[in-house]
């Protein structure tokens, strides 16, 4: 019955991270001992003070429709957070709260892109960027990077990718899947190019900003000439372990925020009311309240790099943020492992799932054919066991 579906849905890819997680669950249900390192989801419990805020909101009967763009006091908390953490001043009319940062991104694409508009994506990029752009009739333009440059796009690469059809550039820092973090000097280099092209807008996805091991996060909207053309995207899923609560938000030019509110009003309306009240508590809390999670991720990163470094064939760099490593495994291509021919990163990820019972994600889903993504949002015991299994089957 596929011919009765729209061309839009038939041309859309399935999220590779969700697909691998589903495959891992399927194998678990069959009784296999699968270690899941495929999903980008913190394995910590939500801090108790956030839970209490949600319970209080229920008791206070926050059960009615919320404003489309979010409660005013939540938007004030977001504005305060932008000022405190990023040095950015946004009025409440420049902020829109959505059902997760993924909806924030979709809103932006739908209100900004016309048929044929090009969007530059430094690759690797988060798995959904490309399909969201395509859904809005935009054209994703991948700019390949490599492990040798820590998967960061250079100003020269950006300049070469720009055409008369370029409308936007989307990127994340810290990056999913590579864990790369752009420093101020690197962002200034990109901004210098963009200032020569005043009609190009930037989506800066900063959902992992607090899971940052280099110290100090820099927002590109803070760079000279970039504030009025940058939409900063963030949320509470990663730093506060609130993935299922589905709260994301943007700060940006008022005219873009109004357009996103207009679009969202016809799609989902306001985000979950209880989750919004809990998010106020999360954003008003000092960063020290979640430092234990960041410190633990840092320890796990070092552990995984140490253990992977003992396996011949993995080319590694040191990611400075998020909770992923993105090793280049192209040395295995063309080789046969225990009777299985490895042609590409997808073959390699599937091999690890079937032979080692470890779920990872192919780098092909992120625009890089030579790598796999390994999430270390798992316990030290699970990570040690997973790395031992991988080593054994290789």
What key phrases describe this protein's structure?
394 residues, alpha/beta, Aspartate Aminotransferase, domain 1, Aspartate Aminotransferase, domain 2, 2 domains, 7-stranded mixed beta sheet, 14 strands
A few lines on this structure:
This protein has 394 residues and is α/β, with parallel strands linked by helices. 39% of the residues lie in helices and 14% in strands.
The spatial strand order of the largest sheet comes to: 2-8-7-6-5-3-4
CATH domain class of the largest domain: Alpha Beta
Q: Helicity level, as a percent range?
A: 25-40%
Say what oligomer this is.
single chain
Low-pLDDT runs: none
Family: Belongs to the class-I pyridoxal-phosphate-dependent aminotransferase family.
GO molecular function: pyridoxal phosphate binding; transaminase activity
Domain Aminotransferase class I/classII large: 32-390
Keywords: Aminotransferase, Pyridoxal phosphate, Transferase
Describe the protein's architecture and organization:
This is Aminotransferase. Its cofactor is pyridoxal 5'-phosphate. It is an enzyme of class 2 (transferase). There is one protein chain. With 394 residues, the chain is α/β, with parallel strands linked by helices. It folds into two domains: 7-45 and 290-393, Aspartate Aminotransferase, domain 1; 48-285, Aspartate Aminotransferase, domain 2. The protein has 13 helices and 14 strands. The protein has helices spanning 7-10, 16-29, 48-59, 72-86, 101-112, 129-135, 155-161, 184-194, 254-267, 273-284, 291-308, 345-356, 380-393, and strands at 35-36, 95-98, 118-123, 139-144, 166-172, 201-205, 230-235, 248-251, 324-325, 335-337, 340-342, 358-359, 361-362, 372-375. The strands form four sheets. The chain has a seven-stranded mixed sheet, with helices on both faces. A three-stranded antiparallel sheet has the order 9-14-13. The chain has a two-stranded parallel ribbon with strand order 1-12. Helix 5 (101-112) runs parallel beside helix 6 (129-135). It is globular. It starts with 6 loop residues before the first helix and ends with a helix. The model has no long low-confidence stretch (mean pLDDT 95).
């Amino acid at each position: 019955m596929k011919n009765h579906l729209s061309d839009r849905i038939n041309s859309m890819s399935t999220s590779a991270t969700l697909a691998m997680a589903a495959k891992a669950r399927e194998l678990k249900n069959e009784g296999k001992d699968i270690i899941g390192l495929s999903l980008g989801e913190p394995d910590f419990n939500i801090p108790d003070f956030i839970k209490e805020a949600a319970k209080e909101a229920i008791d206070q009967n926050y059960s009615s429709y919320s404003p489309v763009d979010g409660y005013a006091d939540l938007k004030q908390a977001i504005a305060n957070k932008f000022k405190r953490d990023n040095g950015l001043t946004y009025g409440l009319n420049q902020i829109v709260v959505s059902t997760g940062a993924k909806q924030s991104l979709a809103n932006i694409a739908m209100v900004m892109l016309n048929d044929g508009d090009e969007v530059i994506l430094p690759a690797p990029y988060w798995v959904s960027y490309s399909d969201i752009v395509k859904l809005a009739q935009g054209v994703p333009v991948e700019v390949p990077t490599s492990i040798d440059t820590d998967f960061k796009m250079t100003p020269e690469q950006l300049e070469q990718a720009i055409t008369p059809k370029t409308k936007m550039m989307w990127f994340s820092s810290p990056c999913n899947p590579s864990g790369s973090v752009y420093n101020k000097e690197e962002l200034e280099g990109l901004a210098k190019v963009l200032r020569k092209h005043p009609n190009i807008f930037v989506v800066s996805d900063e959902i992992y900003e607090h899971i940052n091991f280099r110290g100090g996060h820099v927002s590109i909207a803070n760079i000279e000439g970039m504030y009025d053309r940058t939409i900063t995207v963030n949320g509470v899923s990663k730093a506060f372990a609130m993935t299922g609560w589905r709260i994301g938000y943007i700060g940006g030019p008022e005219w873009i925020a109004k357009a996103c509110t207009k679009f969202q009003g016809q799609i989902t309306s306001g985000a979950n009311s209880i989750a919004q009240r809990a998010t106020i508590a999360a954003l008003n809390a000092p960063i020290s309240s979640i430092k234990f999670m960041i410190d633990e991720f840092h320890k796990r990163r070092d552990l995984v790099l140490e253990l992977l470094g003992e396996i011949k064939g993995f080319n590694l760099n040191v990611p400075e943020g998020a909770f992923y490593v993105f090793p280049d495994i192209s040395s295995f291509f063309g080789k046969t492992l225990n009777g299985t021919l490895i042609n590409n990163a997808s073959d390699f990820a599937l091999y690890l799932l079937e032979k080692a019972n470890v779920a990872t994600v192919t780098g092909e889903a992120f625009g890089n054919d030579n790598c796999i993504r390994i999430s270390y949002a798992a316990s030290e015991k699970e990570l040690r066991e997973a790395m031992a299994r991988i080593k054994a089957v290789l």
